[in-house]
Amino acid sequence: MIRNWARDPLVHFLIAGALLFVLFAWRGEEPDPDSRTIAVDREVQASIALQFETMMQRPPTDAELDGLIERWLRDEVLCREALRLGLDRDDAVVRRRLAKKMDALASAQAETAVPSDTELREWLAAHPQRFARGASVGFDQLYFADEEAARAAQAQLRRGADWQGLGEPLSVPVSRDKASLRVVTDRYGRQFAAAIAGLEPGEAWQGPVPSGFGWHLVRLRAREEGAVPPLAAIRGEVEDDWRGATIAGRTEAAYRLLRDAYRVEIAE
Question: Which residue has the higher pLDDT, 36 or 75?
Fold first, then answer.
């Protein structure tokens, strides 16, 4: 366990950030965002050459490498100037891409992990409804881009609000009848399907349930159970589900760890 923790790239990132913070706090200064020195050392050159070799299946010639370095320098100069001018601050696309990179950093180890047969058997036993053949669900869902908006709508529903007047537009059906979990996964995403498989049927609006789109309130109207095949017949499917859930869990845990380091003040 300790060795796995020590190899975790997210841990390396957090430790490096903390050390830099302590260093600059001790020296009484902050890192200079306007540095005019760009070091194209051997490591950078090797990285540039490796990217070319990965795409072209051969190493670059000297002339090609010179051109690649010039292109890298152009991107680096423009990127630094954009950051210096603060162009990243109000750009939702840039902010989202940076957030996605942090998510990818947190889940990197889980993406390449190979679970044992024991782990997969335990996963199948813990989540049989996700793999049952012939199983189906009927539900209504309301979509929200923001979790807080979903919670506010849930409070309205508890006070008797009309559910058809709530929610934001989304390109998937609001209601489904007798939909297989495969269909739910294909249309709403693995994270949503995994969450809905654990809900109890009833009239209550449950959630918020996360998905790749955002957040959902779900009313599970019906569920029909099916038969679960043996692990040998669906090993790939079980492994994919295990990996998806592990990645989602690590990503959320990493976010909560970072989120707890901030004091958030929301104006009323």
Answer: 75
